[in-house]
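Q: Joint fold for the lines below.
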Amino acid sequence: MELFAQVVVSGLTLGSLYALVGLGFVVIYRATGVVNFGHGEMLMLGAMSALVLHVDMGLAYVFAFIIAVAGAGLLGAALERIAYRPLRFAPAVTVILATVAVGQIIRAAVRLVRGSEVSRFPSPFSTQPFTVAGVTLTPASIGIAVTSILLVVAFLVFFRRTRLGKGMQATAQNREAATLVGVSTDHTFMLIWAIGSALAAVAGILLAPLIIITPDMGIIGVKGFIGAILGGFSSIPGAVAGGFLLGVIENVGGVYVAGEMKDAIAFVVLLLVLFLRPQGLFGKPESRRA
Amino acid sequence: MNRTAALAGLGVAALVVALAAAPLYLPAYPLFVLSLGLVYAVAVLGVNLVMGYAGLVSLGHAGFAAVGAYVAAIAMTKLGLSFWIALPLGGLAAAGCGVVLGLPSLRLGPLHVAMVTFGFGWVIVLIAQNWLDVTNGPNGLAVPPPRAFGRDLYAPDFHVAVVAITIVLFVLAGNLVASVHGRAFKAIRESELAAQAMGVDLAFYKTLAFALGALFAGCSGALFAALSHFVNPDAFHFGVSILYVTVAILGGMGYLAGSALGGVLMAVVPEVLRGTGEFKDLLTGSLLLALLVFLPHGLAGFADRRGWLPRRPTPPAIEAVAPRIAPNAVRAAGSDDTPLLAVERLTVRFGGLTALKDVSLAVRRDEIVGLIGPNGAGKTTLFNAVTGLYRAAGGAVRLEGHDLGRLAAHERTRLGLARTFQSPELFRELTVLENVLVGAHTGQWPGLLASTLGTPRTRRAEAAQRERARALAAFTGLAQWVDRRAEGLSFGHQRMLEIARALAAQPKLLLLDEPAAGLTSAEAEFLMALIRRIRSELGVAVLLIGHTMRVVMGLSDRIVVLDHGERIAEGSPADVRTNADVIRAYLGARHA
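A: Joint structure:
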């Protein structure tokens, strides 16, 4: 029983990261209708930049964090301008491929600069474990979970309460109508890509102490996406809950499945969800009118 | 045979000879690279079938190639089977995976399918790396050389085999995409809505596209295993899937020659850029992005749009004779009193909104019935419910007395309903003739196997259907535009093409959704004459939505008026024109 509790709690820590990654996907998707296949690479780039700034160059953690996140945001805005804006009216497949291409470029560029070297990143929180009711925790994992949850709540408020957030949702639902009532699509999209990319970088930096950093760590983005699908892509709280759930499922399933194959659990979850309940556990089905 | 076609045929023959004779003039390593390029071309062709022809998305095609390679390798090493059995086994195993992955695409949009295929490619590599007993993990499996004519086939001999297999696969794919089934793929790509309205079974063709795309990738994988005598997981990682897609776009999606070119480039370019291996992924990514923005149709598409590709010569214009268009036109007219179409107390709801409430109407054989009503009255909703695009919440739709129940749109077309759309839903990148041919999808066509093999019967059926399609184009006034892409037609001609395409289905009832909207008065005159001819010469009944009163009043035997989803009047044009309820609905209570 204690083992089970331990597995669930670790799963929730992992899940908080999936939730944060999934949030980035959903934010961009809801405003632009694009699923960003380069999200994982942006996450990796955020972690990499913070690593270089903090570990290699000795900058304080806070500054490294801010610079890496801001850099990712700027890059996101630039990518919108260069790559995604010319394709705004192209078929969905084309835009998907463009995000894949961007991800590939980022991954290859980082590998060119750093090789496939494996690095570790220190946590800003203590990693000294302590035990509560038989479950071992570290301040680091609690810190990560709390930060993720705070960010998720902040974005919920942003989308529901602020003018800018509402403008973004309006753009997502009806581009022309949003333009007519004075929402600038160009600015909104650029801002959305900046925010989404910055969010990816935050997730990457928070995640960094938990896993090893390599140019291929962007694969974690897939987990975030699957979590969001599991919960429901159409709803932010649903997508976030899905992230937590996926973390727990993976960890519990991992007890019975050996080693590296644990990564395949997420894919099996994805297929099951898509076959049985494509709108996700907490999402509303998309109304289909011809 | 005209000169361009003869020259093109000669060019292809020369190319085939040059490829097969490569061992005579190429040293060992360049020969290997060429063989590899052909093997890649087969996989790229698979990507092209899924993405270029059917318009679906696959980001995990290297996963299908991996399945083919490993199944073939294991069949040869562990089961001791011959390569000639292992090759189709690998292809079929991959096709099986393709069917499973194709299933979600029936209900889901491209985003989800992209992720499913991506995840598949990733899991296959995970399995190859970790299922040590079977795959030998990262160390891979050594594959014995294939045997034929009592000896082992190494590089020069095997090259000839690769050339032969590649050519056979390309010819089969070429037959398929030029057939009724290939046109169904393209129709789905251009407009799923219009495709199912023309009787194309979306579920079947999407699954088929994935199965075939995977089959080709699986064959490519098996050939790869035999060519390199070795398989390991590295050859199939995500970057390879992206490379397939990139070179498929570079060559030109929707062009067989594009896939061949793309595959060869995929093998040759890295050799030319030797020493810059580090940059390979960076180059691929940048190339992909640049292609998407600047050259989305690829090299073949570019050449095609410039008119550099040889074309099939167009036969001279044809006279439109009704028997040619509708051989079954003489029906048992008036043999019984059952109306052709009977809509009974039909109700359609969207969430809380009731768009149609208890609407009944009937269309008899040889009748032209008008359906009018103010904007938002539910006219198009009625069409959509009758043709099966919307599910009715209550009531029934009967065709010749048979309840259509829950039949899907494509099945209703088969039973004799065909329609046009309010704003033309044409297959924009297909020619006028091809549009009409898709309309004939529910007609008599050879099966999948016969089409792929290109049997003489297939050719005859295709020729007969083309003849009929050209007659239909002439019937609707499009004779001189048959080879024009639909997107290049004037608006009036687009409307006529919609009618020609619907007539190609040999319907019993034709449903026209505001066919006169946007037409000039001369075009509207032509349209009215055409609709009369459709009834008198082809024996097809017409249900017609109209805003242009002159057209509806002038054509209809009877008119049904809808307002706010309910039927408010029915009668002859003269009755309806003076009906108080109708005037109130259109002009407001003050005028009644």
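Q: Anything notable?
A: Residues 20 and 275 of chain B are 30 Å apart (CA to CA). The two ends of chain B are 69 Å apart (CA to CA).
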